[in-house]
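Check out a protein:
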Amino acid sequence: MAAQALLLGIVLALAWSRGFGLGFDWRYYATAASLSTLTSAGVYVAFLTPDILAPALILSMALLILRWGKLSLLDRVLLCAIACLAAVSHDSHIPVALAMAVAGVSVALFRREPVLGIRLSAVVLPVVVGLAGLVLLGSIAKAQTGRPLMRLPFLSAHLADMPEGEKFLVQACPQAGYELCHHLPALSQGNWIDFLFATKERGGVFFASPQPIRDRLSEEQGRVFLDALRANPLQIGSAFLWDGVRQIGVVDLAEIAPDRHIPTLRLLFNSNVMAQIEQTRSVRRPDLFAAFDRVQSIGGFAGAALLFVALWARRRDLINCHQSTGRFVLLCVGGILANAIVCGLLASPLGRFQARVSLLFVFLAVAQLLAARKLAKAP
């Protein structure tokens, strides 16, 4: 918990000072305190999830791409290490890092700015480390179990949850021979989360099935998706892309509310531990968590609106000024959008996926306004 908070704190401090050129006065500490208490940052740190590394990845990549010259050697090493750790901590972080690297390097090349050598290596390294981590983890799993690494069939669950996908499965089964064909009756009982995690009584398929069935569902998801895409590229492709776009505005923490997971936790912990968990305020008072969720959601949207106003006020500097903080902000916003599209497309729209980066809207808005004010006061 402390390590996750420290990593995010380091990146926020570097973004504040190197990204926006601001000093560490009371405004920084007030911003940091607000982020830790009024946004999703504190929740993700407390739950020890890798989601908290998504905003750290976005800021780290933006600093490495656009603020390389302002970073010390220690800054570069820290940011590169944090970005690499974020990339290996969650599969969805890899395409986000790749999208930011491609966008940042492309803009730099277009403006004929130097990006070769160590700088380019540092930007690409998180993507390479993330992919290498996937390969290494798969090799270790196969060596230990004799089976390929089992991954959650998010693509199949997403496909089965949308009308276009369900229509394809009805037409393709049973001739296609998918394991998924044997579970068509259960698909209409719940959503994609139920498909993956619920019991059979609630329409669950994946975790409710024996290991051999899980393996087959995991292994076939790519083939099922590609077959559906080939059968109806326009409808299936547009439906997946629309879910990626929809994810941008789906921001909440309802899915990780502690009281919702008590039945699952009882399967994982003994009675003594469960007694302590059930006595926590977040379980006994779910209304408090719901109220906090509303606060962080409103804060995220308010931060996005404030950031738009701040950028619009200095829109002339976004393209023309090489040192403009606006370019740094735009690349970070690109990372936020990439996070939404990747999660919404590969899984399905879920509030938790975008809530993990919504704190960046608040941070970027405050920092951009202060940086613009500082620039306006400069002689």
Notes: The chain has 20 helices and no strands. Residues 154-249 form one domain.
